[in-house]
């Protein structure tokens, strides 16, 4: 179980690190755009991302 958590965190860090390393100025634009979105909408986006992530994990666990 712990190895799966470490693997997931490592993959998140790789993806986030690539975004920051390859397009730092684009990341600033994204952060500015997010600041313009109302908090309720950002919360909905976050919940949708969590639901999608849980769905992907569920599918992956069922496939293997």
Descriptive account of the structure:
The protein is mostly helical and 64 residues long. The protein has one domain. The chain is built from three helices and no strands. The radius of gyration is 15 Å and the shape is flat.
Care to give the gist of this entry?
92% of the residues lie in helices and 0% in strands. With 64 residues, it is an all-alpha fold.
Q: How far do the termini sit from each other?
A: 15 Å
Shape assignment: flat
- Poorly predicted tracts of residues: none
Q: C-alpha Rg, in Å?
A: 15 Å
Number of helices: 3
Order of helices and strands: HHH
Which band does the percent of strand residues land in?
under 5%
The main sheet comes to: none
Average residue pLDDT:
91
Q: Could you estimate the helical fraction of the residues in percent?
A: over 70%
Number of strands: 0
Please state the structural category.
mainly alpha
User: How many distinct domains?
Assistant: 1
């Amino acid at each position: 179980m712990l190895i799966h958590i470490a693997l997931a965190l490592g993959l998140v860090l790789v993806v986030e690190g690539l975004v920051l390393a390859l397009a730092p100025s684009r990341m600033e634009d994204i952060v500015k755009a997010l600041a313009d979105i109302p908090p309720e909408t950002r919360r909905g986006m976050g919940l949708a991302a969590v639901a999608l992530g849980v769905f992907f994990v569920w599918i992956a666990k069922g496939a293997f």
